[in-house]
C-alpha cells in the first residue's frame, strides 16, 4: 500500500516535509516480520527506530546483514524522491493496496518510471444510489479503470442540508453490489474499486476491503486533523482556520501540521493491522472480497433489526463465478486510441508539432461519436510547449458534420478549429488558448435563421481560461459557466448563462434564459436586448446592469462583432454593425459588483503609486475618511459626548492576554493601523446645536456602502465597551451595561458574524437554546430589527434576561474564538430585545383557544417562567406558585440590580400576566400549601424549584456571627431595594471575605463594594486558570480561562489589586468573645495528579495565614433542591440529590409530576433553566394532548 498526501490545502513545503520525515512507518501494510541490520540501525534516528519497532514489532537486536532488511539508506532516498513527484489528484488521502512488498524491499515502484508524464487512469465516480453495480459494469465495459463508490455520508457538508441528510445510500451497499456484478461479468480485474464516504477508522477500512474495495478515500478525517471545523463555507474564501482559502491573511491562521495527519494514519494503520492479524490475513489483497469474515449482529432487543437480511450483501462474489481474477487493475484496458480522430490529426500535423513546418491546414469529416475532439492533440502540444502553445493558426482544422461531446475540450493555443454543422454538450470545455468557430451548414435553406436555432449544446466554455469561441446560432443552458478568461460570441443562450463566471468576455446577440449571471463574480457580459426582455431574467445578487456608453466598451464590441461577421457570416451581427449608431443602445453590460470593486481598488493603487506620496487613511469604525469627511474635519460617525474616554472595562469572555491586547485599542481602529483618538476627532467646537445632532440616516447609508459583511471578521475588531466605566458604575446601582454605545456600533459587530454553515454557537457546546444566532446577526446587520426579534423569540422566551446575565457559552463556541475574539453575540441579543420593547413590538399574545387542562408550576425562576409561558402558549390554564413576595425567583432576588434591573423582570411578568398566566406569591408549597393538594387540583405539575440548598463549610468556628450564605446576603439586599422593611446584611465599613468564585461570588464582591466595604477578598481553592485554553480544554468547549468580570475590575480600580486569592483552603474561623467572626485561618494548597490521573490536593507547609474579616460570605454553590416537596411526595432522587427523570425526559417517578431547571439538572445557568422549562413544557403538552406544536431546540417543531 502506498500513501499519497493529496490535500490541496497543504502547502508544498509541508507536504514535502511529511513525505521526507514520515514515509517509512506508513509502509506497514502487508509486511512480514522484517528485521533490520546493525548497519542500517546506525543510520536511522532514534525516533525512526522507535516507529519501526512500534509498528512492525521487531526486536532491537542486530541481525546478520545478509538477512532481509526493510530498506537501505539509498533506497529510502529513492523512495522519497519518487513519492515527492506524485501529483495531487483530488482532495484527501487515497490509500492503495498492492505492490508493497516490492516497494518496501527495493525502495522503488514496480517498473521503470519514464521522464515524461504518466498516463492518468480513467476515473468515474458514483454516488451510492439504486443500481450502482449495473452502472459500474457499463463503465468497466466502457474502458473505465478506476471507479469510486461514494456513500451518502461523504463530503464536508458544503451541499444543501436536505441533500446531506436524505440523499444517497451507504457505500457498503454500493461496494458490495459493484464488486459482485463486476466479478460476475469477469470485469473485476480491469478496474480498481475505491470506497469513499466518512471512512474514518481502521474498522471502516477493513469492512470496505472485505466487501470488495481496493482503495479507501479519506477526506473529512484528515481535514479535521489539520484543523478543519466543517464550517461549510469553503466556496466563499472565508475559512477562519486557513484551510479552504487563498487569502494570505486567513492562511496565517492555519495551524495544521503534517504530523497530525501522519499520527492519524499511524493509529488507523495500527487498527487495520490488528484486525488483519485477528482474521489471519497477511496482505490487504487477501482481504478483498472475503465477505465470509463479516457477520451480522443486530442490536440486542431490536426486533426490527433482527428481520433484516444481509445475505446478498455478504455473498462472496467468487461463489457466483469461481476462479475469476478479482485483483483490481491487474488487466489493462484496451482503449483502441489509434482509431480516434485526434490521432489522424496528429499524424497530419506531425511536421508542425516537430517544428519542421509553420502551418498546416486539415479538412476532415466528423460525427458525434468523435468525443473530446482536440483534447489529445492539445495534450501533446502542452507536453512539448507547456503553457506557451503554438504560434497563432499553426494548425487550422476545418470539419464538417456533428461534433461529439466535449468538442475542442482543452484546445491549446495555436490550434484553430472551424466546424460547419453543430456540436453536442461541453463545447470548448476548459478552452486553453485555441480558437473555435461553429456555424450551421452552408447548404441550409435561405429561410433558415441561425439566431433562432441551437448550434451548440449545454455547458459550453465550462472552465475556459483563454482563447476565442464564435458560435453562429444559439447555445443551450449554462453557457460560459465558470468561464475565467475566454472570449465568446453567441446569438442566444438558455438558462443560467454566465453562471459563476470569473473572467473573460461573453457577448450574447439575442435572448437569454432565466437566472442569467447567477454567482458571477468576474468578467463582463454584453447582451443585445432589442426586445427588452433581458433584465427580468437576470440574477442581480452579484451584478449590476449598465448601459454601454464608454468608448472602451463600444470599441471592443464593434471590433469583436466585426471579427464575428468575418468568421461566421452572421447576418444578425452584420445588421447590428450596419446600424451601429442606433443598435449599440440596445446592449446591456453585465458587470459584477465584486469585479468593479477590484478594478477600482487596482486603479486607486496605481494612481497612488504614480503620485508617489504615501497617504495614511484614517478609518473610523471601518469607514474611510474620504467617504465621510467634509473638508477633512467633520466626523459623521463622531461618538457621543458621553463616555469619550478610552474604554477601560474588560471582556468577561477571553483570557487576560487577549483582553489586555484589545483594551489598548481605542474605540475605533482602522485597517490602516492608525488609531483615532476620540478626544481629538472633533477639534473644532460646536457652534450650533445642530452640530451636536448626529445624522444617523446618513451614517447608515455610509455603513451600507462601506461595511464588508463577507470579511467583517477580518476587517473589524471586537468591541470592548459593553460595560460602563468602572470608576463611575461602582458608585451607583444602575445596570453596568453601556446599552447606548453598544447599540451604536452594533452593525459593525454583527458584520463580524461569519454566518457559519455549521453554527457551533448553537451547538451542544454553545447556546443550550440553539438560538438562531447567525440568522438574527445577519438581520441586525441589514437593519431588519423586527424580523431579527421574531427569530430570537422563536427559540428564547426571555432574551432580555439571557442578554444581561448569561456568561455566553455561545461566544465560547464561536468559530472566531479559535484564533481571534468571538462575535459579541450577547450584546446583539440584548440590543434586539431592548429595541423591540422600545418600538412596542413585544406585546402579550393571548391564546385564542384554551385546552381546558390545568397545569401548576412550582417556582417562578427562569425555568418556571419559561415552562409557564410555553404551556400558556399551548392553551393550557397555568398557575405559578412562588414562595417569595414577588415573582421572578433568582431573577428577582438572586441577581443584583446592577446586573439585572428589576424593572426588566417586572415588565416581562406583566406581559405574562396579561397573556393569562396566574401568579400566586407568598405560598411555599410543602409548608403553606400541601403538594398533594396541588397534584389533585391540576392535570400536571411542573417542579421548577431551583437548586436552593447551599453548600456549607463545616470547619471550626462556623457558628460565629457574621458568616452567611451568599444568597441570603444578596436576597436580603434586593428585598431592601424593592422597599421591603426587613433587615438586611450590610457590608458597610467591613472587611469582607467571599469564599468561592463563579457568578455568585462576583455578585457578592460588587454588592459589597457598593455597600461601602472596607476591603474585599475572595478565596478560591482551585489554581488560577490559564490565560488561554489548555490542551485539555479545546474549542468549542467552554473556555476555562482566567477572566476579569465586572466585580473584579471594580475592586481593582478602587484598591489596585485583584480581590482573588487562588490555591487557598480555609482551616477555621476566628472570633471574639461576643461570638463575632474576626478572621479566617488559611493555608495554601498544591494540586497534582496521582498515578490514576486523579487530581489530589496537598497542603503547603509554612503557608498558613490569617485574614482579618468582619463578614464572611459562602458562595460555594448548591447541593440541590430543598426537601419539603420531595419528602412529602416521595419523589425519586438521583445520586446527586436532584429530582430523577429518564434521560432527555422530564417526568419524575410520580405520575403527572415533572421537573425542570436546576432541581433536575443541578446548579447551572439561566439559559439552561430556560431551555429546561421550554422542553419540559413540550413534554407536558404532548402527554396531555397526545401531540404538541411547541418548538424544540432551535425553534423546530416536531410531532
Automatic annotation (TrEMBL):
Keywords: 3Fe-4S, Amino-acid biosynthesis, FAD, Flavoprotein, FMN, Glutamate biosynthesis, Glutamine amidotransferase, Iron, Iron-sulfur, Metal-binding, Oxidoreductase. The keyword Disulfide bond does not apply. One of its GO terms (biological process) is glutamate biosynthetic process. The keyword Flavoprotein applies. Residues 730-840 form the Dihydroprymidine dehydrogenase domain. InterPro entries: Aldolase_TIM (IPR013785), DPD_II (IPR028261), FAD/NAD-bd_sf (IPR036188), FAD/NAD-binding_dom (IPR023753), Glu_synth_asu_C (IPR002489), Glu_synth_asu_C_sf (IPR036485), Glu_synthdom (IPR002932), Glut_synth_ssu1 (IPR006005). Pathway: Nitrogen metabolism; Amino-acid biosynthesis; L-glutamate biosynthesis via GLT pathway; L-glutamate from 2-oxoglutarate and L-glutamine (NAD(+) route): step 1/1; Energy metabolism; nitrogen metabolism. It holds the Pfam family Pyr_redox_2. Its EC number is 1.4.1.14. It catalyses: 2 L-glutamate + NAD(+) = L-glutamine + 2-oxoglutarate + NADH + H(+). One of its GO terms (molecular function) is metal ion binding. It comes from the Eukaryota. Gene3D superfamilies: Aldolase class I (3.20.20.70), Alpha-helical ferredoxin (1.10.1060.10), FAD/NAD(P)-binding domain (3.50.50.60), Glutamate synthase, alpha subunit, C-terminal domain (2.160.20.60), NAD(P)-binding Rossmann-like Domain (3.40.50.720). Residues 131-281 form the Glutamate synthase domain. Belongs to the glutamate synthase family. NCBIfam families: GOGAT_sm_gam. This is glutamate synthase (NADH).
Amino acid at each position: 500500500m502506498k500513501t499519497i498526501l493529496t490535500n490541496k490545502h497543504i502547502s508544498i513545503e509541508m507536504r514535502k516535509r511529511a513525505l521526507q520525515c514520515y514515509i517509512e512507518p506508513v509502509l506497514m501494510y502487508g509486511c512480514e516480520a522484517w528485521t533490520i541490520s546493525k548497519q542500517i540501525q546506525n543510520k536511522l534516528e532514534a525516533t525512526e527506530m522507535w516507529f519501526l519497532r512500534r509498528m512492525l514489532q521487531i526486536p532491537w537486536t542486530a541481525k546478520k546483514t545478509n538477512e532481509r532488511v526493510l530498506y537501505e539508506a539509498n533506497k529510502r532516498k529513492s523512495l522519497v524522491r519518487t513519492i515527492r513527484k506524485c501529483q495531487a489528484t483530488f482532495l484527501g488521502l487515497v490509500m492503495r493496496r498492492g505492490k508493497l512488498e516490492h516497494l518496501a524491499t527495493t525502495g522503488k515502484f514496480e517498473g521503470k518510471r519514464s521522464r515524461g508524464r504518466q498516463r492518468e487512469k480513467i476515473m468515474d465516480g458514483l454516488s451510492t444510489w439504486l443500481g450502482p453495480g449495473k452502472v459500474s459494469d457499463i463503465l468497466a465495459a466502457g474502458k473505465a479503470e478506476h471507479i469510486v463508490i461514494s456513500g451518502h455520508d461523504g463530503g464536508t457538508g458544503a451541499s444543501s442540508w436536505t441533500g446531506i441528510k436524505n440523499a444517497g445510500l451507504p457505500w457498503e451497499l454500493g461496494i458490495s453490489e459493484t464488486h459482485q456484478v463486476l466479478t460476475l461479468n469477469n470485469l473485476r480485474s480491469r478496474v480498481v474499486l475505491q470506497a469513499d464516504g466518512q471512512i474514518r477508522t481502521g474498522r471502516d477500512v477493513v469492512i470496505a476491503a472485505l466487501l470488495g474495495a481496493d482503495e479507501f478515500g479519506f477526506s473529512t478525517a484528515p481535514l479535521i486533523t489539520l484543523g478543519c471545523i466543517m464550517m461549510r463555507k469553503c466556496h466563499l474564501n472565508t475559512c477562519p482556520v486557513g484551510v479552504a482559502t487563498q487569502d494570505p491573511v486567513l492562511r496565517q491562521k492555519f495551524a495544521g501540521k503534517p504530523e497530525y495527519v501522519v499520527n492519524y494514519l499511524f493509529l488507523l494503520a495500527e487498527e487495520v493491522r490488528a484486525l488483519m492479524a485477528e482474521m489471519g490475513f497477511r496482505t490487504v489483497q487477501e482481504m478483498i472480497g472475503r465477505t465470509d469474515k463479516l457477520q451480522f449482529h443486530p442490536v440486542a432487543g431490536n426486533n426490527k433489526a433482527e428481520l433484516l437480511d444481509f445475505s446478498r450483501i455478504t455473498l462472496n462474489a467468487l461463489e457466483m463465478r469461481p476462479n475469476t481474477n478479482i485483483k483490481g487493475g491487474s488487466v489493462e484496458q484496451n482503449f483502441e486510441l489509434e482509431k480516434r480522430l485526434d490521432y489522424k490529426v496528429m499524424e497530419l500535423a506531425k511536421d508542425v508539432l516537430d517544428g519542421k513546418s509553420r502551418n498546416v491546414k486539415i479538412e476532415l469529416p466528423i460525427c458525434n461519436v468523435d468525443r473530446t475532439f482536440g483534447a489529445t492533440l492539445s495534450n501533446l502540444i502542452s507536453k512539448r510547449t507547456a503553457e506557451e502553445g503554438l504560434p497563432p493558426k499553426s494548425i487550422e482544422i476545418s470539419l464538417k458534420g456533428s461534433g461529439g461531446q466535449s468538442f475542442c475540450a482543452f484546445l491549446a493555443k495555436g490550434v484553430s478549429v472551424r466546424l460547419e454543422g453543430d456540436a453536442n454538450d461541453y463545447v470548448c470545455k476548459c478552452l486553453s488558448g485555441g480558437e473555435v468557430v461553429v456555424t450551421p451548414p452552408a447548404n441550409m435553406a435561405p429561410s433558415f435563421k441561425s439566431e433562432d436555432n441551437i448550434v451548440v449544446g449545454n455547458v459550453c466554455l465550462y472552465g475556459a481560461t483563454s482563447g476565442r469561441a464564435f458560435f453562429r446560432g444559439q447555445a443551450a443552458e449554462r453557457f460560459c459557466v465558470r468561464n475565467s478568461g475566454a472570449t465568446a460570441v453567441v446569438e442566444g443562450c438558455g438558462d443560467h448563462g454566465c453562471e459563476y463566471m470569473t473572467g473573460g468576455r461573453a457577448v450574447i446577440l439575442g435572448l437569454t434564459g432565466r437566472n442569467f449571471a447567477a454567482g458571477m463574480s468576474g468578467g463582463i457580459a454584453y447582451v443585445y436586448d432589442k426586445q427588452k426582455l433581458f433584465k427580468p431574467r437576470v440574477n442581480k445578487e452579484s451584478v449590476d446592469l449598465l448601459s454601454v456608453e464608454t468608448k472602451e466598451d463600444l470599441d471592443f464590441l464593434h471590433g469583436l462583432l466585426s471579427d464575428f461577421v468575418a468568421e461566421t457570416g452572421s447576418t444578425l451581427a452584420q445588421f447590428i454593425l450596419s446600424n451601429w449608431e442606433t443598435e449599440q443602445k440596445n446592449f446591456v453590460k453585465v458587470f459584477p459588483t465584486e469585479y468593479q470593486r477590484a478594478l477600482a481598488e487596482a486603479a486607486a493603487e496605481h494612481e497612488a503609486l504614480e503620485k508617489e506620496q504615501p497617504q495614511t487613511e484614517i478609518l473610523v469604525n471601518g469607514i474611510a475618511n474620504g467617504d465621510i469627511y467634509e473638508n477633512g474635519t467633520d466626523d459623521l460617525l463622531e461618538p457621543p459626548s458621553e463616555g469619550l474616554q478610552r474604554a477601560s472595562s474588560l471582556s468577561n469572555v477571553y483570557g487576560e492576554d487577549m483582553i489586555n491586547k484589545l483594551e489598548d485599542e481605542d474605540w475605533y481602529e482602522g485597517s490602516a493601523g492608525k488609531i483615532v483618538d476620540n478626544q481629538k476627532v472633533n477639534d473644532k467646537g460646536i457652534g450650533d446645536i445642530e452640530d451636536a445632532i448626529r445624522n444617523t440616516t446618513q451614517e447608515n447609508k455610509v455603513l451600507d456602502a462601506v461595511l464588508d459583511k463577507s470579511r467583517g471578521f477580518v476587517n473589524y475588531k471586537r468591541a470592548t465597551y459593553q460595560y460602563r466605566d468602572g470608576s463611575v458604575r461602582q458608585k451607583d446601582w444602575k445596570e453596568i451595561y453601556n446599552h447606548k454605545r453598544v447599540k451604536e456600533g452594533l452593525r459593525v459587530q454583527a458584520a463580524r458574524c461569519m454566518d457559519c454553515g455549521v453554527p457551533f454557537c448553537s451547538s451542544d457546546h454553545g447556546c443550550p437554546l440553539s438560538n438562531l444566532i447567525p440568522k438574527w446577526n445577519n438581520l441586525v446587520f441589514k437593519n431588519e430589527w423586527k424580523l431579527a426579534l421574531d427569530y430570537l423569540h422563536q427559540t428564547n422566551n426571555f432574551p432580555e434576561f439571557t442578554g444581561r446575565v448569561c456568561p455566553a457559552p455561545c461566544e465560547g463556541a464561536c468559530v472566531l474564538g479559535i484564533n481571534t475574539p468571538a462575535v459579541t453575540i450577547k450584546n446583539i441579543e440584548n440590543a434586539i430585545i431592548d429595541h423591540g420593547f422600545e418600538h412596542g413590538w413585544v406585546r402579550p399574545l393571548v391564546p385564542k383557544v384554551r385546552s381546558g387542562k390545568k397545569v401548576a408550576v412550582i417556582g417562578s425562576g427562569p425555568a418556571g417562567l419559561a415552562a409557564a409561558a410555553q404551556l400558556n402558549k399551548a392553551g393550557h390554564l397555568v398557575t405559578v406558585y412562588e414562595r417569595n413576595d414577588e415573582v421572578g425567583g433568582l431573577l428577582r432576588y438572586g441577581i443584583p440590580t446592577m446586573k439585572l434591573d428589576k424593572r426588566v423582570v417586572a415588565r416581562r411578568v406583566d406581559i405574562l400576566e396579561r397573556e393569562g398566566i396566574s401568579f400566586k406569591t407568598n405560598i411555599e408549597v410543602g409548608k403553606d400549601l400541601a403538594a398533594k393538594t396541588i397534584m389533585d387540583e391540576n392535570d400536571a405539575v411542573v417542579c421548577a424549584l431551583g437548586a436552593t440548598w447551599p453548600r456549607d463549610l463545616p470547619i471550626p468556628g462556623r457558628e460565629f456571627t457574621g458568616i452567611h450564605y451568599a444568597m441570603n446576603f444578596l436576597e436580603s439586599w434586593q428585598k431592601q431595594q424593592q422597599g421591603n422593611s426587613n433587615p438586611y446584611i450590610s457590608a458597610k465599613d467591613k472587611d469582607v471575605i467571599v469564599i468561592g468564585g463563579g457568578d455568585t461570588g462576583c455578585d457578592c464582591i460588587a454588592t459589597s463594594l457598593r455597600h461601602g466595604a472596607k476591603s474585599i477578598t475572595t478565596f478560591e481553592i482551585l489554581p488560577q486558570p490559564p490565560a488561554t485554553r489548555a490542551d485539555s480544554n479545546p474549542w468549542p468547549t467552554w473556555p476555562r480561562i482566567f477572566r476579569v468580570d465586572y466585580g473584579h475590575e471594580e475592586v481593582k480600580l478602587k484598591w489596585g489589586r485583584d480581590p482573588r486569592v487562588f490555591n487557598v483552603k480555609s482551616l477555621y474561623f476566628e472570633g471574639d468573645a461576643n461570638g463575632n467572626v474576626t478572621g479566617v485561618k488559611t493555608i495554601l494548597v498544591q494540586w497534582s495528579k496521582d498515578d490514576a490521573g486523579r487530581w489530589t490536593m496537598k497542603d503547603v507547609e509554612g503557608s498558613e495565614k490569617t485574614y482579618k474579616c468582619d463578614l464572611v460570605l459562602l458562595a460555594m454553590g448548591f447541593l440541590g433542591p430543598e426537601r419539603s416537596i420531595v419528602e412529602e411526595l416521595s419523589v425519586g432522587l438521583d445520586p446527586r440529590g436532584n429530582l430523577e427523570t429518564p434521560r432527555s425526559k422530564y417526568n419524575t417517578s410520580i405520575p403527572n409530576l415533572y421537573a425542570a431547571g436546576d432541581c433536575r439538572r443541578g446548579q447551572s445557568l439561566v439559559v439552561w433553566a430556560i431551555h429546561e422549562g421550554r422542553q419540559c413544557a413540550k413534554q407536558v403538552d404532548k402527554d396531555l394532548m397526545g401531540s404538541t406544536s411547541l418548538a424544540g431546540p432551535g425553534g423546530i417543531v416536531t410531532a
